[in-house]
Amino acid sequence: MKFSLSSPLTRRSFLATGGAGLAVGCSQTPSLQLVKESFSLLAPSDSTYPRTRQQIDAATYAQLGVRIGNGTRGIMVLAEKKGEDLQWLSANRIMLLTRRGRIVKTVGLPTDLSGCELFGADLLEHYDFAAPAVPSGILRRRIDIGSAFGIPVQSRFTLEGDETITIVDQRIETVRVREDLDSPDRKWRHPNRYWLSKRSAMAWRSLQYISPDMAPIEMEVLKRPA
How much is the pTM? Predict the structure, then answer.
C-alpha cells in the first residue's frame, strides 16, 4: 500500500504501512529512509522534507523530522505518549523514545541505545524558558549501547545564545544549548546541541550523539504534541 503526499493520511494508516512492502533494513546507513517507502513522492533533496508546512499542519498527529548524519530527511509520527516520554515511530518500524527532547532509547538502528540512566542536574529537565541558566556540577549517566552496558558518560552544559531557527517555513525563537559529552572509557567526546523554545520547555531541534559508532541524529519537531 502506498500513499501520495496529496492523499489524506491518518496516524493509523501511516503506522500500518510499516510492515508492508518495505525493503528497508538497518544496513542502509546513515539514512533512516523512514517514510520514503510509505509515500510515492520522495523528498526532493537531502535538505528538505517530503511534506509542506500546509500538509504538516493539516495532519492530526504530532510529527518529528529526523536525519542521521548527512542522510535523507524523513518523518516519524508520535505513536505513544506517557508523561514526558514520547515514542516516535517510522514507517519501517524504527523507534525513538525521547524525554524532554533527549533521546533515551532507540530500536532498529545499526547500534541501538537500549538504556540511559541520569544522575545529577539536567538542564533539559529543569529548563526555565523565562530565565535560562546552566545547572551547577556535572551531569553523569550510564548508557547501554548494543551489547555494552553501563558505559559511564559525563557532560556539562553551555548556553550559546539566542537563535531564530526555521523549520519547514516556521520561524521559532530559541536558546541554543551545547552539551559536551565525555566518556573516558570509550575515548568518546562529542557536543550535543539543543534549540530550546523561549516560550516553553519545548526542544524544537537537537543534534545528538548516542553512540561512538554512529553519526549524530538530528531531530526537528515539525508538529508538536497536543
Answer: 0.81
